[in-house]
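> call design_seq(struct)
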């Protein structure tokens, strides 16, 4: 009878179970940033880890067999809601054939990927948040040319196994290439060794630049990719802030933390009884341009004042 009221309420509160699978390592700071944003969003809605929710995290960085194993383990644990990070993760979970509610985050092309029939009313048990509109490819090209006007060749880097949507980004780049006086090419690469060889070969000719697609494999291998760009003195544009903060020249893409906070809202609604299929798939609402001036200086590049004025963050 002497227990505090809060403690008695906590003991009587039902703990809801959430499962999450990420194609990143648990020790990756970027993974922890995303987890932190999700948990912050849930706290704002009254869901507290250890009090009324328990989040079971699963990690599967860089290896297809590990991803399939973690997806199977997650399904066996039967959480009330699953959060699936990235296209490969969602595909692996769907292959398990479960009808558990799924909220995906950072899935680039959920309709053509076969995950939902449309954005407005996805139906079924899958909904979530996309990362990009494919027209952003031309914006990446524009930003690259503003910082490095001598670039005449641009290589798009991606892993075809984890970026089946690459062609959707390629089309806007190819359409805009002539207006920026560049020749684009694709470099579909599956591992670090292939990336090293291809980038070295591409850099053998002058006036090259890189464009890295929003691909979970590229995020996982971001450190060697950034190092290769520096070693071969290749200007590069990246899809997420973490690339620029890790030493990449610049990034322009969706605000990842905002996406995970918004995903918390869908988890909240599902736990409160909302039908998954009635929740529309949402596109990103916030984008951020990050420029690393230290890297620009090392490459001998001058960032135009106009682009600096547009930047959300400048790393000096």
């Amino acid at each position: 009878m002497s227990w505090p009221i809060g403690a008695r309420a906590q003991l009587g509160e039902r703990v809801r179970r959430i499962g999450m699978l990420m194609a990143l390592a648990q020790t990756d700071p970027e993974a922890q940033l995303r987890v932190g944003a999700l948990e912050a969003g849930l706290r704002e809605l009254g869901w507290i880890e250890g009090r009324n929710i328990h989040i079971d995290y699963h990690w599967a960085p860089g290896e297809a067999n590990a991803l399939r194993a973690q997806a199977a383990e997650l399904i066996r644990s039967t959480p009330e809601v699953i959060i699936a990070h990235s296209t490969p993760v969602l595909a692996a979970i769907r292959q398990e054939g479960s009808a558990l509610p799924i909220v995906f985050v950072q899935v680039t092309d959920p309709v053509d990927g076969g995950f939902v029939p449309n954005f407005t009313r996805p139906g079924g048990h899958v909904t979530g948040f996309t990362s990009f509109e494919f027209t952003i490819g031309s914006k990446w090209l524009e930003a690259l040319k503003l910082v490095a006007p001598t670039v005449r060749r641009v290589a798009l880097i991606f892993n075809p196994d984890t970026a089946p949507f690459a062609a959707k980004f390629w089309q806007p780049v190819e359409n805009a290439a002539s207006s920026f006086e560049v020749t684009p090419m694709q470099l579909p690469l599956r591992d670090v060794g292939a990336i090293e060889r291809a980038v070295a070969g591409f850099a053998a000719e002058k006036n090259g630049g890189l464009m890295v697609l929003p691909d979970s494999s590229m995020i996982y291998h971001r450190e060697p990719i950034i190092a290769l760009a520096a070693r071969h003195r290749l200007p590069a544009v990246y899809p997420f802030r973490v690339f620029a903060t890790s030493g990449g020249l610049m990034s322009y893409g969706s605000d990842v933390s905002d996406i995970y906070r918004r995903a918390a809202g869908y988890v909240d609604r599902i736990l409160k009884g909302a039908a998954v299929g009635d929740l529309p798939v949402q596109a990103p609402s916030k984008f951020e341009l990050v420029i690393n001036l230290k890297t620009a200086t090392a490459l001998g590049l001058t960032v135009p004042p106009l682009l600096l004025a547009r930047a959300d963050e400048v790393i000096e």
